[in-house]
Amino acid sequence: MRNVLSIARRECRAYFTSAIGYVVMAAFIAFTGLIFFLIVSQPQAVASMDGVFRNLAILLVMLLPLLTMRLLAGERSGDQGIGTIELLLTSPITEWELVLGKFVGSLLYIFALLAVSLIYPFTLGRIGDPDLGTIFAGYVGLLFFCGYCLAFGLFLSSLTNSQIVAAISSIVGLLVIWLSKFLGEVGGGKLGWLAWWSFMDHHEDFWRGLITFSDCAWYLSFIFFFLFAAKQMIASSRWR
Predict the structure, then answer these.
(1) Is 63 in contact with 146 (CB distance < 8 Å)?
(2) E strand spans, 21-103
(3) DSSP states of 135-173 as a string?
(4) Around Cβ 212, how many Cβ atoms within 10 Å?
(5) Which of the residues 60, 128, 154, 158 could staple to 72 if both were Cys, CB 3.0 to 4.6 A apart?
């Protein structure tokens, strides 16, 4: 656990000392601020975060791969073309500690972003009477959503030495998984099973204020699967 926390602190600190961390934060704050302003400025505005949560999902699909692209691909390539993955693999840490440390570090950064956005529910509480239960469920859903995207991006980052390839493949992969929901709906009975694989099919209940065991289990299962797959890729690199 000590190694996991040490790696997590290092990764989280790296986001706040690098340009990409501030770019992602600026984009996140600007986008959520704009969406929130458009919602509350409507003549018959409702004190709800539903619109923010819905529109934020597509932004996160584009932004989160920028955070994960450097986690393992960056270790291989390095800033000067000489990676540090060899040093990590020969240090007294396990593959699980490395993967979990990097995942937890990126998740801590997401916690910081979501903490900044708490100003919007606070503002709604000052100007209206929002359903706090629905807002809480929305934030829980965002954490699961971000965890899924981070784990997926971390896995793809373990497959390549190129940060650009890791970022683009993660964005494309997440969009394909997203669109599988619509393919399942259009295809009806024959392709209906595709919707189950889409994270959006399990995310919408959180927007409605519902936290179900099945949706939580789905997210946790796939997060574990992608982290395990990344761990296996690192283990194979250790013996090459």
Answers:
(1) no
(2) none
(3) HHHHHHHHHHHHHHHHHHHHHHHTT-S-HHHHHHHHHHH
(4) 12
(5) 158
User: Any residues with CB less than 8 A from the CB of 139 and at least 6 apart, and which?
Assistant: 114
Instruction: Please report which confidence band the pLDDT of residue 81 belongs to, taking 50, 70 and 90 as the band edges.
Output: very low
Digit-coded pLDDT (tens) for 50-78: 888 888 888 899 899 998 887 777 665 55
Q: What is the rounded CA–CA span in Å between residue 168 and residue 33?
A: 26
Residue 14 has pLDDT above 60, yes or no: yes
For tokens 């501030």, name the residue.
22
Distances (CA, A) of 236 to 19, 54, 103, 162, 171: 31, 39, 19, 18, 25
- pLDDT, position 170: 92
- In order of 47, 158, 179, the CA distances from 221 in angstroms are 34, 19, 20
Supply the pLDDT for residue 75. Answer: 60
User: Are 105 and 10 spatial neighbours (Cβ–Cβ below 8 Å)?
Assistant: yes
Domains in the chain: boundaries: 2-238
Largest interatomic CA distance in the chain: 63
Smallest CA-to-CA distance from 24 within 51, 60, 56, 48 is with: 60
Please give the share of the chain, as a percent, with pLDDT higher than 90.
Answer: 25
